[in-house]
TrEMBL record:
Pfam families: Acyl-CoA_dh_1, Acyl-CoA_dh_M, Acyl-CoA_dh_N
A biological process term (GO) from this entry: fatty acid beta-oxidation using acyl-CoA dehydrogenase
Entry-linked Gene3D superfamilies: Acyl-CoA dehydrogenase/oxidase, N-terminal domain, Butyryl-CoA Dehydrogenase, subunit A, domain 2, Butyryl-CoA Dehydrogenase, subunit A, domain 3
Family recorded in the similarity comment: Belongs to the acyl-CoA dehydrogenase family.
SUPFAM superfamilies for the chain: Acyl-CoA dehydrogenase C-terminal domain-like, Acyl-CoA dehydrogenase NM domain-like
One term of GO molecular function: flavin adenine dinucleotide binding
UniProt protein name: Acyl-CoA dehydrogenase
Lineage top rank: taxon: Bacteria
Xref: InterPro entries: Acyl-CoA_dehydrogenase, Acyl-CoA_Oxase/DH_mid-dom, Acyl-CoA_Oxase/DH_mid-dom_sf, AcylCo_DH-like_C, AcylCo_DH/oxidase_C, AcylCoA_DH/ox_N, AcylCoA_DH/ox_N_sf, AcylCoA_DH/oxidase_NM_dom_sf
Acyl-CoA dehydrogenase/oxidase C-terminal domain ranges (all copies): 235-382
Length: 392
């Protein structure tokens, strides 16, 4: 399937892959890669090189349009071949999802002010939706949202707490989600960051370490936002969240599939070179069969991604399909990453290769953008609704 543009997506994906393998991979040992993601100066350096190579923000067309989801998959899988790849070429979460939402919902003025710096790679963004679980806030159930907004003249005033806000530290663009005090409906607001009314209380120590800025806990105190910085219409925030989250779930699948392809390459090379009991590890069935299972899971994950991409390209919101893809792909990639560690033994749990990091990243992926169990529960509810409708 091809979009209405002149871009040779296959050639573009090849250029992205060459850039990631040749330029980005050597940075994986850079000391600026920390527990809370790559440092800001490293992000800038990598993006300068991506810009020079013509592969920065490759999923956004020169005219501001977007590749189809199928085409996006072809490109984003390649960008994920290194944990640093999506950051380098500007396909990383949450920016990629925020760009998509702004492109769909933002006004011309909002796009010029907030979207253009993201597309150019000159700014990062944060999506302020999730709230602290210990305080009863919204997580997988956004209806539990406690952050509130109210009109005050020509401004909205927002108060609340947010948690696990990826990339908030160092971000220049914020999308803040809050519940209207008057109507109870959700609203989204665009905010220039940093902002004195948004305090980053702490950066959480988490199992993953690939996303710039880490994951923050934030307090929002009397944040005043001009009415023209509301994203979309008042009360439609939950609908816009689905516009963003369905393709964003799939984009995660794309990027992390790329990482697992690379991890499997490393594990396979290790198994073919490492000798044990008189022969290469690959010749021991216990090892060879694990790598064979990896090939099967990799192909099935790829097919699930392209199937869901085609559904989204058909114009469907794709919430059911993206839930299926999130479950199937995240669980398959977890099996792959785990096998790669196991095949490599002690080397697999060391920092000598990226296999250990990929394992950590995929473990986190099974939770964010909806844990496996939440998506299965949602799918089970659909089965019940469909059964009831068919037997009414």
């Amino acid at each position: 399937m091809s979009g209405a543009h002149d871009v040779d997506v296959g050639a573009l994906a090849d250029r992205v892959e060459a850039f990631v393998r040749d330029v980005v991979v050597p940075y994986e040992k850079d000391p600026r890669c920390g527990a809370h993601g790559p440092a800001e100066d490293l992000v800038v350096e990598l993006r300068q090189k991506a810009r020079a190579a013509g592969v920065l923000t490759p999923h956004i067309l020169p005219d501001g349009g977007h590749l189809t989801q199928r085409e996006t998959a072809t490109v984003l899988i390649r960008s994920g071949l290194s944990p640093l790849g999506p950051t380098a070429v500007n396909t990383m979460a949450p920016d990629e999802g925020n760009m998509y939402l702004l492109g769909k919902v933002g006004t011309a003025e909002q796009k010029a002010h907030f979207l253009d710096p993201l597309v150019s790679g000159d700014a990062r963004s944060a999506f302020f939706m999730t709230e602290p679980a210990a305080e009863g806030g919204a997580g997988s159930d956004p209806s539990m949202m406690q952050t509130i907004c109210r009109m005050d003249g020509n401004h909205w005033v927002i108060n609340g707490r947010k948690a696990f806000i990826t990339g908030a530290e160092g971000a220049k663009v914020g999308i803040v989600m809050a519940k209207s005090e008057e109507t109870g409906g959700a609203c989204m607001f665009l905010v220039d960051l940093p902002h004195p009314a948004i305090t980053l209380d702490r950066i959480l120590d988490t199992i993953d370490s690939s996303m710039p800025g880490g994951h923050a806990v934030a307090t929002i105190s009397n944040l005043r936002v001009p009415a023209d910085q509301m994203l979309g219409e008042a009360g439609e925030g939950f609908k816009y969240a689905q516009v963003r989250l369905s393709p964003a779930r799939l984009s995660h699948c794309m990027r992390w599939l790329g990482a697992c392809i690379r991890a499997n390459e490393i594990a396979s090379d290790y198994a073919c070179r490492r000798m044990a009991f008189g022969k290469p590890l690959i010749d021991h069935e216990g090892v060879g069969f694990m790598l064979a299972e990896n090939l099967i899971d990799l192909r099935q994950a790829e097919q699930m991604i392209y199937w869901c991409a085609d559904v989204l390209d058909s114009g469907s919101l794709g919430t059911v399909e993206s839930s299926m893809a999130k479950v199937a792909v995240s669980e398959a990639l977890m099996r792959i990453a785990d096998r790669c560690v196991q095949v490599m033994g002690a080397t697999g749990v060391s920092g000598d290769t990226i296999v250990e990091q990929v394992f950590r990243e995929i473990r986190a992926f099974r939770i964010y953008d909806g844990p496996t169990e939440v998506h299965k529960w949602s799918l089970a509810k659909k089965i019940k609704r469909d059964h009831k409708a068919a037997n009414a």
